[in-house]
Amino acid sequence: KGTPALGLGLEISTSIINQLELSLSQASQKNEHQAQGLGISPHHLKSPSKATSIHALSLKIGSWERKSNNPDDLTAKFYYGTKKLVWEVLCGSLKKKIQIRWSQISAINAYVDGNQTSCLEIELTEQPELYEEINFNPKSRTQWENAVHDFTGDQTRICRRHTLTFARGVLNDPFKTLLKCDNRLANIIQQPFPYQNSPFFHEHMPDFSCNRSIQAIFPNNDHQGTSVPYAPNHAQPAHPFVEHSSCNTPATGRNLIL
């Protein structure tokens, strides 16, 4: 049996409402002051809820590379609310995706190369998650399940560095928003890239993973990607990405967005 009601009522007076509003305002101001003390702008406290999706020209992971022939072939998505990056690859009629948590990123870099394309490089501390589309239905949201096979020929399990290229200017706004939403990423972009000495997750990798092409695993052989000899990209960008950074810019001429 429940406790009988005492018959007491609560009158919401104007003074109570004013006191609540004052308390909320003071708490908000306190959060802003704390953020400024940590060097974080107030807009860092709230991430945009809407994700950004942009067309990518290519994606390279180790010995595997996918080049886009059509706008839907390769897509990079920035999820600011859930703090994830996603690379979506169209394989025949179904999509596959690589999902990366921002917390898995140990180094990040963006620049414009000699071909005047925007490049995004990331280095991971852990292997990303892989998913594949279940059934294509244009009238409903995409349904995903854990991928049975690594469609990159196990390169996401071997290599920690991902390189994407975009048409010049396409990456500018999403990348700036990414850094504004995460103070840690805004800090690590100032460190040299790559950060880890080895491009591999495991120290002792067999020679074939670096010196010989690995054929990616693709059902129905529908040209979802190609295998190329792995070679770390040590070329330095020749042009600034969006704006010249005066903060910790390496002497090699690499210009980053901060």
Automatic annotation (TrEMBL):
Residues 54-172 form the TRF2/HOY1 PH-like domain. PANTHER family: F10A16.6 PROTEIN, OS02G0793800 PROTEIN. This is TRF2/HOY1 PH-like domain-containing protein.
